[in-house]
Amino acid sequence: MKNVFQRAINLEDLIDKPKSDYEPGELVAYVTTAFPGDPKGALRIMKDNYEIGSILFERTKILLEGLQDAKRN
After folding, report:
1. What pTM was estimated for this model as a whole?
2. Do the Cβ atoms of 41 and 47 come closer than 8 Å?
3. Where are the alpha helices (DSSP H) in 1-73?
4. Tell me: the pLDDT tens digits for 27-47?
5. In whole angstroms, what is the distance from residue 15 CA to residue 68 CA?
6. Cβ-contact 64, 39 below 8 angstroms
7. pLDDT by residue (tens digit) across 46-62?
């Protein structure tokens, strides 16, 4: 089952776009598709490896936490 970000964003349109230029919703769609077992861990690694900046990291992390909370309710 796809989450709201995966349904709204076509990842094939982002292939040539650097991850640092993604919007937070685009990055959520990417990490939840590419790393379904640990999207937060993948996000942390991207920040640690300087693929994304701290602002994009924080905003994306908030969206991921919101998705996680929504799945619990």
Report:
1. 0.90
2. no
3. 4-8, 24-34, 39-48, 54-72
4. 999 999 999 999 999 999 999
5. 26
6. yes
7. 999 999 999 999 999 99
